[in-house]
Amino acid sequence: MTDGTGWQEDWREHIWLPYAQMKHIAPPLPVVATNGTRIRLADGRELVDGIASWWTACHGYNHPHIRAAVTRQIEVMPHVMFGGLVHEPAVRLATRLAALLPGDLDRVFFSDSGSVSVEVAMKMAVQYWLNRGIRGRTKMLAFRGAYHGDTFATMAVCDPDEGMHKHFAGILHENIIADLPHDDENAATLDALVARHANEIAAIIVEPLVQGAGGMLFHEPEVLRRLRALADKYDLLLIFDEVFTGFGRTGTMFACEAAQVVPDIICFSKALTGGTMALAATVAREKVFEAFWSDDPARALMHGPTFMANALACAAANASLDLFESEPRLEQVARIEAALQAGLEACRGTPGVRDVRVRGAIGVVELEKIDDLAALKRRFVARGVFIRPFGKIVYLTPALTIDNIDLKRLTDAVVHVVRQIP
Ligand code: PLP
């Protein structure tokens, strides 16, 4: 069933799609509608979305409360230039984020993507030192295999040896890449590395609890406590990239809460609007913000995306926060975690499976290798699910509203497909 216009094929002529130019990747599926945890394809098939639109649609698609809020906002003011003008949806959202976040993380800079939220965080960190008359602190300390975005500066904090952007090694600004301090031994190694480079480092940047696109690697809250202690010892800023982990994915509203560690700057995007609109927020502590508070333009943070604090997106984000308050969203994560654990357990011991791990609403089956990614994706579709493995990782990150029936469809599909891998 198509609409007869042929648009399902026309995308090839005019649209650049990430990775679609790579021959081994299956072509994109034409989608016409989304609802709840389902995706409807142009040919009428319905798939259960196993990845919540790349970790964004935490309340499922087309939630009536978010739809109503966006509809109300579009009638009044969809977008207006921000800065010089300021509007209620943005002020309300910033106030609510500040109230939800731990410590004095209460100064919100709005932008429009995860990469830009991280880029801004790093700019803030470097400028923070410049404003103190220190010009040498321009590097970031980042972690092996990490992924923080696709802009030039965020690519430079993705691991040049193992990360997605390694082909740019030697071209990008050089940062310092280290191992996460999982135990006393690598904490001591990291301490020695920082001691050597302390006067070059502006900030430590890390994804708390789960290194998402960088391999879906889990680490313990203790790691974050060690990083906070290290940052305090050497007077570095600590940036948490919660673009993936923010808004319930790991079981608390923000992953940093599990460790009770307050970073100096924190980044959000993806699920901030419940996955409906492009919006991002970089939130800084008073101490960071204070460094910019001056009449001297050279001390200000020069960054002003045209669509910053888009009013529709802010309305969607406020509605998303309403849902975290009014519906038992975080309470559902334990149920999802248990279902993922029970369902994916059957993959353990399957030839070709290296590891199975679950944390919060994240289920990971790590394979030894994936030879035919396109075939794998097709097999998932044939089982009625939409799952997009990357690297050697098959992961489930469904909406936090997913019911047990759809969860079972997802985990059964993963078990079935993984067992078929030659
Ligand atoms: N940071 C993390 C941890 C991410 O997972 C991503 C995207 O996957 C980004 C940054 C970049 O976000 P965006 O794709 O919105 O630019």
With strands numbered from the N-terminus, the spatial order across the biggest sheet is 4-12-11-10-7-5-6
> Number of domains in the coordinates?
2
Report the CATH C-level class of the largest domain: Alpha Beta
Q: Hetero groups bound?
A: pyridoxal-5'-phosphate
State the helical fraction: 25-40%
What would CATH call the architecture of the largest domain?
A: 3-Layer(aba) Sandwich
Pathway: Cofactor biosynthesis; biotin biosynthesis; 7,8-diaminononanoate from 8-amino-7-oxononanoate (SAM route): step 1/1
EC number: 2.6.1.62
GO molecular function, one term: adenosylmethionine-8-amino-7-oxononanoate transaminase activity
Function: Catalyzes the transfer of the alpha-amino group from S-adenosyl-L-methionine (SAM) to 7-keto-8-aminopelargonic acid (KAPA) to form 7,8-diaminopelargonic acid (DAPA). It is the only aminotransferase known to utilize SAM as an amino donor.
Could you please describe the fold and organization of this structure?
The protein is of the alpha/beta class and 422 residues long. It folds into two domains: 7-59 and 328-420, Aspartate Aminotransferase, domain 1, CATH 3.90.1150; 64-326, Aspartate Aminotransferase, domain 2 (3-Layer(aba) Sandwich), CATH 3.40.640.10. It is 37% helix and 17% strand. The protein has helices spanning 7-14, 52-55, 64-76, 88-100, 114-130, 152-155, 184-197, 221-234, 256-259, 286-290, 311-326, 329-344, 373-382, 404-420; strands at residues 31-35, 38-41, 46-49, 105-111, 139-143, 176-178, 201-206, 210-211, 217-218, 237-241, 265-268, 280-285, 353-359, 362-367, 385-386, 393-396. A seven-stranded mixed beta sheet has the order 4-12-11-10-7-5-6, with helices on both faces. It has a four-stranded mixed beta sheet with strand order 1-2-3-15. α3 runs antiparallel to α11 (311-326) and α12 runs parallel beside α14 (404-420). The two termini are 34 Å apart. Its EC number is 2.6.1.62. Catalyzes the transfer of the alpha-amino group from S-adenosyl-L-methionine (SAM) to 7-keto-8-aminopelargonic acid (KAPA) to form 7,8-diaminopelargonic acid (DAPA). It is the only aminotransferase known to utilize SAM as an amino donor. Substrate binds at residues 54, 147, 270, 304, 388. One of its GO terms (biological process) is biotin biosynthetic process. This is Adenosylmethionine-8-amino-7-oxononanoate aminotransferase.
